[in-house]
Amino acid sequence: MNIAIYSGSFNPIHTGHLRLAEYLTAHRLVDEVWFVVSPCNPLKEHPSLIDEYQRLDMVILAIGDNPLLKASDVEFTMPIPSYTIDTLHRLTELFPQHRFSLFIGSDNALVFDKWKSPDQILSEYEVFVYPRKGYDFQFVADKYPEMQLLDTPIYDISSTEIRDMIRENKDTGTWLLPEVANYILENNLYR
Q1: Residues 32, 1: contact at Cβ < 8 Å?
Q2: Per-residue pLDDT tens for 53-85?
């Protein structure tokens, strides 16, 4: 099976994340998408990063019964910070029957040269890139011709904006699934 790894903080997961993952399976680019919840991103500071198990719970709630989407806690037992190349290698070891690829946003593609072993990732794994507003897609295409740039819809929202909306008691609208919104409310998160 072909599995796309969609790694992130998912702090919290929102409908934009889900629609992007569904794009990959709907267009038969991969068989499944695995959301890998990262305890810590080495290139980001997360003063508002909540417990990784709560973020994993929200991913599980968001996925629901969609058989093509999975939640993964593989990085919870790996050294922190976790690096994508190490995660991909670990998943390849654990699931040798699958072929893994990576799914990243154009914002991450623009700093891909700062990642650990970027050339190794590109030589060993297919990398799919979705557009993010304000990040030069053409620059990514020119710099990394081996990456597959996707014509996905642009979801003009971020988890940071959603956390701000929650803090300010604003309606998160359609960006949060009801199950995730209820979990956030019940656990008094992002207040």
Answers
A1: yes
A2: 999 999 999 999 999 999 999 999 999 888 999
Distances (CA, A) of 120 to 84, 115, 123, 182, 188: 11, 10, 5, 41, 41
Q: 110 vs 6, 73, 118, 144, CA distance in Å?
A: 17, 26, 12, 9
Tokens, residue 98: 């699958």
What is the pTM (predicted TM-score) of this model?
0.93
User: Which residues on adjacent β-strands are paired with residue 126?
Assistant: 101
